[in-house]
Amino acid sequence: MINGVFYRIRTGVQWRDLPERCGPWKTVHERHRRWSAGGTWELLLQRIQAEADAVGGIDWDISVDSTSVRAHQHAAGARLAPPSSLKGGLASAIKIAWIRMELVDLPAELVQEARRSAARAAASPPSFT
């Protein structure tokens, strides 16, 4: 089940397109939904980070600036809130999507880009000027 959730997050496929080896997609989706709502994923992340930090497995020094992280093409000029003309469930769904993009997706993209940039910098030979 956990591998099914990781597979979906890593590849971005729809829940219905999960490989059969991950189990029934409805079961994987429902468990992921319940764990997300109940805070299980956050608890797992905190415990894994605490264990890794205790043995020195996490380098918490990450420097991110605008010269090393590119903004997503849709980041420029985007509205901060859904249009007020939308009513009911559609407005709620759009608002939730905006919140997810601002609080989850964009920071995750920034961290991934920072890690890629740090890996490129570590792999390149030092330059002396």
UniProtKB/TrEMBL annotation:
Recorded hits in Pfam families, A to Z, give: DUF4096
- Which InterPro entries does the record cross-reference, listed alphabetically? IS402-like_dom, Transposase_6_like
Insertion element IS402-like domain boundaries: 1-44
Could you tell me what this protein is called? Answer: Insertion element IS402-like domain-containing protein
What organism does this protein naturally occur in? Streptomyces albospinus
